[in-house]
Amino acid sequence: MLDIQSIRAHFPILNQEVNGKPLVYFDNAATTQKPLKVIEGVDNYYRTINSNVHRGVHHLSGLATDAMEGARAKIQRHINAAKLQEVIFTKGTTDGINLLTSSLAKGLIKEGDEIIISHLEHHSNIVPWQMLCEQSGALLKVIPINGKGELSLDAYRSLLSAKTKWVAVNHISNALGTINPVKEMIALAHEVGAKVLIDGAQAAPHLQIDVQDLAADIYVLSGHKLFGPTGIGILYGKEDLLNELPPYQGGGEMIAEVTFEKTTYAALPHKFEAGTPNIAGAIGLGLAVDYVNEIGLANISAYEQELLEYATQELKANFSNLRIFGEAEHKTSVVSFLIGDIHPYDLGVILDKLGVAVRTGHHCTQPIMQYFNIPGTLRASFAFYNTKSEIDQMIAALQKGVAMLS
Ligand code: PLP
After folding, report:
1. N or C, which terminus of the chain has less Cβ within 10 Å?
2. What pTM, to 2 d.p., does this model score?
3. Do residues 173 and 311 both lie within one domain?
């Protein structure tokens, strides 16, 4: 059992009114709130040890380097990466995917090769692959979904062949909440010799990730969705693969030696970390990982499942003309819905006036909206600091909104 009131006290932002009503923050799939531990850790970095990392002999530079590398080690343990050098700091999930596709574009993908993504992807796991295919002449194939928002594994099997070079799928869909069977999908890809990128943006805040158990070749995530700062993320990659990939960006930090004739690159992880990194962000992400582990991801997901079930049940009980999009058997704490033919934006604006923050629109997943033939949805996404009484507040706000707009 989690003590939610004590947990909420760790998140100062939650204790405020919006439009004269207590804030109900249900936009956690877009970004999560930050506990004091993270806020104070970032503040403390700038107050006491701010300095550039890796190349300083002076005291502060040593402290900043130790703090940043200490955060890398925490993240390595958290995702169970075999080696420290397999953990690359990025700006976030989008940056991690672009790192891989830009690197592959340097001659590693060719005409006739095939790449498989799924119909459930966020635009950031579609567009970079489309760009790679345009540049290389490779073919992009898409795993279809069913009406519940689940991937068809049979269709996936039939798309895989010796031509498949990469598969890129999300662990959890941000728009529908579907938890995809990524371990099985990775094993199937490996059978045909393909490699797999897993977009873990939505999984990191809800599930214990074990990259070795999954056997993921690349696993990317965003710090800000894991209760950490914005502008920081992780790309995990198997060491051999990362050694084969050419660097994404050139600059300082990523070199071994530079002459005008030739540059040699630094060893991992620095080969992929050109320029001054987001030091405060990395430290903040390390503290966020500590925080989540203190609560325990198993406790977090059990409680969030309760919230999901309660919200689904209350929505169904209160609105006869409700449509829920995404009713996968394995699902995380996201409810995407529409009521009657009310436009999601109109209801979202009224909810905001009543203190309830949900997301409206296509959630950067236009192909999913095209599949359901809708302009967008209202999406309520829950974190472990949310409560059933906040869900009641959302239902009451929806009732008012529906009465006004019907
Ligand atoms: N992938 C998924 C599944 C997401 O939900 C998101 C963000 O919503 C992203 C990728 C992109 O993450 P970021 O904007 O942090 O790079």
Report:
1. N
2. 0.98
3. no
